[in-house]
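User: Structure with pyridoxal-5'-phosphate, tokens only please.
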Amino acid sequence: MANKRIFLSLSQQSGWEQEYVQQALETHWITSGGPNVDAFEEGLENYFGNEKFVTALNSGTSAIHLALILLGVKAGDEVICQSLTFSASANPILYQGATPVFVDSESDTGNICPTALAAAIEDRIAKGKKPKAIIAVHLYGMPYKVQEIHSIAAKYEIPIIEDAAEALGSSYKGRSCGTLGTLGVLSFNGNKMITTSAGGALLSDSKVLKEKAIFYATQSREATVHYEHRQIGYNYRMSNICAGIGLGQLKVLDANITKRRENHLFYKSLFETIEAAELFEVPHADFISNYWLNTILVKTNTEKKRSREALRLAFEKANIESRPFWKPMHLQPVFSDYPYYGKKVAEDLFEKGLCLPSGSHLTEEDKNRIKEVIVDFFK
Ligand SMILES: *Cc1c(COP(=O)(O)O)cnc(C)c1O
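Assistant:
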């Protein structure tokens, strides 16, 4: 194909990544942990106004797993999880031998539905088990209904694991996503707001929790010269090489957020006149999305051969990547045995939802090609 491929979400480099990686190599800090890791954590802590303690890990998935461990989730416990999300939100529940309880979305933000959440908690308590934690997700950068969800969590005294893997740079009522829950999770996977190639972070409220997270992430080694272990540990610490990339990436974080929000304005003006599709936008001024990915719902029209999949194929024909919404967890074969609360909102979003190219690198030329496909498809 003559046209170069437009990807869904490519990372943008600052040029500093190589310097920090080079330094790590030259000083033989080629291991997990090290000066780049400390500096990366400090950089993130500064970004969050030094409100939180940040533990850098080798993935967002590890961060969710450690969050469950820090909250004392054990085999046989139940953990509530937003159904419409990436599988990494839910998998660690099973690593702990706990049971996921999936909850539907509401249609304003696509995130966990307050009504379904309250119903799920009530019913699980009635059945004899109070859920140990709630995993709520800011999907595609869109904040969930923080006030409603957190007041339900507070009422039943259930801690929140805030999955902000896609929401670095988003905020709710002026407060950064990632800092709102009992524990917060970030991801620096290849296509997230910033990348360390692979990486993640856990945000907590105290130095004690940060040190505990590091303890578990480095094989639960007791403070002895011989390696003494009283608990099962994990190899979850971020590598000093990856953190070097992260330090370079911190320099473009603000620029990436600005760029992604500009991409949103491009889509907003494009879809203003298109009735057959609906662009996801923040429901209220309290919500600020980084618009990590711009998402639309395509109204199915069999006569005009319009569907989410038809649009995806039209993009593909033009060598442009787009992607269906995450398939809800309660519809996944691997999770089919677990309880689900709600109606069919998540299912409906999955059927109609498409993620559009939204990278921090999108050029004017890319936008023109994207526009051409969309205008032609909906004409
Ligand atoms: C990317 C992602 C994660 C996990 O992050 P990794 O760093 O890939 O392990 C968790 N939750 C959501 C919603 C994500 O998009």
